[in-house]
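Support request from a user on the community tier.

User writes: "When I paste my structure tokens into the form, the page sometimes reloads and wipes my input. The last time it worked, I copied everything first. Here is what I submitted, just in case something in the input itself triggers the reload:"
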């Protein structure tokens, strides 16, 4: 059966930064998840067709950046164009990360710095597992490190060209 993965949507959309210096690149990625708390592990599924795949394989590190709705135009370029030259069309600012040589994105709500600890092919994607070795975040979006949907417009992906954000209301369970 093909294509039914759309039934798991809406999903959050993230940015994956890879490479260093002039080679630094950014792509959009929905297929991202937390795998473990201790150690802190994050996984991302990346097709071998992506330029990003080559860069992560080469440098064994990547950054998962959390974009806001305000960054949608750049997210779309990151998700539809290939290779570092797309950066020239984008308004993102790459800044040094804390613990790895792959840069972070200044405008992002958060940047999670990862070193690759495993990579395994599943079908037409490679599942890269990264250990979180550093992070930075925007204090308004994450007061005390917790997301605040009233303060920031977190980005989610509904269908190919359709994106949404969360409403500003929080439903409490107790
Ligand atoms: C919202 C969105 C989410 C995406 N999610 C993924 C993903 O999880 N994995 C993947 O391999 N490609 C994903 N893509 C496709 C890549 O972002 C796209 O092929 C991009 O051009 C690759 O850039 P690169 O060749 O510079 O690495 C997504 C695209 C969009 C627009």
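"...and here is what came back when it finally went through:"
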């Amino acid at each position: 059966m093909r294509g039914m993965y759309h039934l798991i949507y809406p999903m959050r959309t993230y940015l994956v930064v890879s490479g260093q210096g002039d080679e630094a690149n950014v792509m959009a990625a929905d297929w991202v998840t937390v795998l473990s708390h201790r150690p802190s592990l994050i996984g991302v599924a990346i097709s071998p067709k992506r330029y990003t795949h080559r860069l992560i394989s080469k440098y064994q590190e990547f950054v998962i950046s959390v974009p806001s709705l305000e960054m949608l135009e750049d997210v779309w370029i990151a998700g539809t164009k290939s290779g570092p030259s797309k950066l020239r069309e984008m308004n993102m600012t790459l800044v040094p990360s804390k613990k790895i040589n792959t840069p972070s994105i200044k405008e992002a709500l958060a940047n999670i710095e990862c070193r690759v600890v495993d990579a395994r092919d599943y079908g037409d994607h490679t599942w890269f597992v990264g250990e979180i070795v550093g992070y930075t975040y925007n204090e308004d979006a994450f007061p005390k490190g917790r997301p605040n949907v009233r303060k920031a417009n977190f980005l989610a992906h509904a269908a190919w060209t359709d994106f949404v954000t969360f409403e500003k209301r929080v439903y409490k369970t107790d």
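Agent notes: The reload is a front-end session timeout and is unrelated to the input. The first helix runs from residue 51 to 59. The chain is about 10% helix and 40% strand. Escalated to web team.
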